[in-house]
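Holo model, carboxymethyl coenzyme *A. Inputs:
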Amino acid sequence: MSETITITDNRTGESVEVPIVNGAVDATEWKKLMPGTWFADPAFSTTASTESAITYLDGGAGQLEYRGYPIDQLAENSTHLEVSYLLLNGELPNKTQLDSWVEDVTTHTYLHENFRRHVHDAFHYNAHPMGLLTSSVAGLSTFYPESKDIEDPENRQRQITRLVAKMPTLAAAAYRFSRGLPFVFPRNDLDYTSNFLSMMFSIAEDDYVPDPALRKAMEILFILHADHEQNCSTTAARVVGSAHADPYVSVAAACAALYGPRHGGANEAVLRMLAEIGTYENVPAYMERVKGGEERLMGFGHRVYKNYDPRAAIIKEAAHDVFKVTGQNPLLDIALKLEEVALADPYFVERKLYPNVDFYSGLIYQSMGFPVEIFTVLFAIPRTVGWLAHWQEMLEQGSRIARPRQVYTGEATRDYVAMSDR
Ligand code: CMC
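Output:
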C-alpha cells in the first residue's frame, strides 16, 4: 500500500501524488498543482503549522508526553525546573546539569530596580494582574536590548534563563501591587516553587516556608501546565517570534492570548461560574442553559482532547491532598455534580466534551489562598518555558515568517464615491 494521497484538479485532469509523512501531507505539493487556491481552515483545525519534537498529544486517547515522558510520571517524580530543562533541551538533566540550571535560574530572579519601582506605578491600583503581567513581560524587552540578537544561541539561552527566572517575580509583583501589598524580594535559599509562594504570601516573616503538601501541589500544577504543543498562546508566541521579534515581546503576545477565557482565562471563569451556580441544587438548571446555548460550561471541552484531559485527572487527585491541609473547597461539590451530570448527558457525550485542565485547578488555587484574578497568571508562569521551548525550536528550524492566506469575500473593485454622492 502506497503511503500517499493523489489530488486531482477535475477542471484540468491534472494530478499530484503527495506522500503522507508522519501523519501529514505537505501543502506545498498542493500549491504546485493549484497555485492561488488555498486551503480554508480558519481556526487551524486541520493544519499542522510545524514539525515539533517537544510535546506529544493524542487527544483521542487522552495521552500527553513531554519529550516522550508520560505526564503522570513527570508529575509524580519531577520538579518544574527539571521538566523545564527537559522541554528546552530534549533530555532529562544529570545532577551537574540540573544543579547548574537551578543555580542560573535562582540568580536571575531579581528585577531591575527601575523596572520594579516605576513600571507598575503606571497602572491603576486595581489593574488585573494578567494585564500587568503581559505589559511587564513586554517591558522587559526594553531592559534587555541585546535580546534582539535572536540568531546567537548563547544569547538566546541567557534570555530564556531570565524569563523562566523572572516570571514568578513578575507574577507575584503584579499580585501584590493589585492588592496594595509591599513587594517581597526573591529568596535564593528557596526552591523555585517555594520562592514564588514566599513572594506571594509572606507578610512580615523573612523565614517563610510553605506547607510541604501545598508546595508539592504547586509543583505538580506547574509541571502539568508547562507545555501543550501548538495551543493558542504558543502559536501566538511562534507567530510573533517568526517575525524575529525578541523573546520578551513574543512571550508577551503569548500572555495576551492566554488571558482569554477560552484559553488560560478559563480557570478564572470556572470559579466565577461555580460561584454563580452557588448551590448543588442549581446544577441541573445551569446545565439546561448550557445546552440551550446561553452559557458555555467553562473548564469543559478542548480542541484536541476528545477524551478526559489527563491533566484534569491528575489535578483532581492532587486536590484531595490540598484539601487535607486547607479543608475542602465548598465549591467542589458543585464541580463534581457538574462533571457527573455532563458525563452522562448526550449533549456532552456526543460532542466528546470532558473536563479540561482548568476545571479543577481553580479549586486548588482558591483553597491555597490565591484570589481568582491571579489564576491565569499561575498558568502563565510554568507555560513560559513551553513558549520558549517552541520559540527556540522554531528559530533552530530556520522557519519562515508566519503569514497565512485569506479567502477574500469583500467588494469587487469600485470607484471612490464623493462625500456628496453617498
Ligand atoms: N460548553 C458547552 N458546549 C461546548 C463547550 C462547553 N465548554 N465547548 C464546546 N462546546 C460545544 C460547542 O457549542 C459546539 O457545539 P455545536 O457543534 O452544537 O455547535 C461543539 O461543542 C464544538 O465546540 P467548538 O467551539 O467548535 O470547539 P473548539 O475546539 O473550537 O473549542 C474550546 C474548544 C476549549 C475553546 C471550547 O471547548 C470552550 O470554549 N471551552 C470552554 C473554555 C475552556 O474551558 N477553555 C480551556 C481549554 S483547556 C486549557 C487551555 O488550553 O487553555
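Residues 153-179 form the longest helix (27 residues). The chain has two domains: 4-39, 52-399.
Archived with the compound record.
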